[in-house]
Specification:
The structure is a single chain. The protein has about 140 residues and is of the alpha+beta class. Helix content is about 40%, strand content about 15%. The protein has six helices and four strands. The protein has a four-stranded mixed sheet, with helices on both faces. The relative contact order is 0.14.
Amino acid sequence: MTNTPDDHTLLRQAIALAAEARANGNPPFGSLLAAPDGKVLAEERNTTLTDRDITAHPELKLARWAARELDAATAAETTMYTSCQPCEMCAAVIERAGLRRVVFALSNEQLLDIRPSSGQPPVPQVGPALLEEVRDVVAGYYR
């Protein structure tokens, strides 16, 4: 899928939201959700610092809004425009919300060239374990 001039217009609005986030003391990320005709349905800025919430990414907030406020058919027609490619957490929630597509300005790889490393070591994940016990709880839920 290629980007259109209309995509670029909406992407510039997302970049302006990122600038607003930065001006308010937050990381510089902004996103908006648009209908097929380009009408902006909702917009968000990163508020991880001012909200003291490490999950307050604009992409996550918009995906949650879409899942709560839009019916599935409408969500499936929307496009998210965002200043930076969604992180893994946000991408998973966008998928669960059933949005049609995401258009981003800066890739995660490009972001890593700009920002320093967090310095945090990876968190070890140990498992699977107790498969039969958890299978009984989960089996049959997803149909």
